[in-house]
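Quick one:
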Amino acid sequence: VPTPPRTGSIMRWIMGLMNKKWARGNHRFSEEDMKQLHKTFWEKNQNLQILAWELDQETTAALVARCREEKVTVNSALWNAFLTAQEEVQRDRKAYRKRSALAINTRDKLKVEVGDVLGFYASSLTVNLPIQTKYSFWDSTRSVHGILNKNLAKTNVFRMLVAEKMHPT
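Output:
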C-alpha cells in the first residue's frame, strides 16, 4: 500500500497484551457459533434493514451523463439523494443526522495493480455531510462532492490494515 497505517507504541503494546491473553484462552469459533452469533445479532437488531434498489439501464445512463455534466460523481449524487430523503423522513429527529459511512474501493490506490484477483480491496470513511435544503439538488450535490473529496484526501484508506496486528483468530 502507498501509506501503511501507523500504530503508536502504546497501541502496539496494548494489542500485544490483548493478543497474548487471547492466545492463552485458546478461543475458537465453530461454524455453529458463527450461526448463533448471526441469529442473536438479527434478533437484537430487528429494526435494521437492507434495501436493494436497481436502476434500469436507461435511467443509469441518464444519471451518469448528468453527473458528468455537473462535474460530480454518481456516488456524490446518490449520497445527496439519500441525505435529502433522510431529511424529508426524519425532520427534527437527529438520531442519524449527518454521519454517513462511505464505501471505498482501494484497488486504484495501491502501488502495484492487482488485476483480476479476488481479495478484500475495500475500506470505509465516515463523514459529516450537512443537509443543504436551501440549494438546488445539483448545487448541494457539488457541496457533498467537495466534502467527500476533501475527507478522502486526508484519510488513510488503508487504516483498517492495523487489524492485521491482532491475533489471527
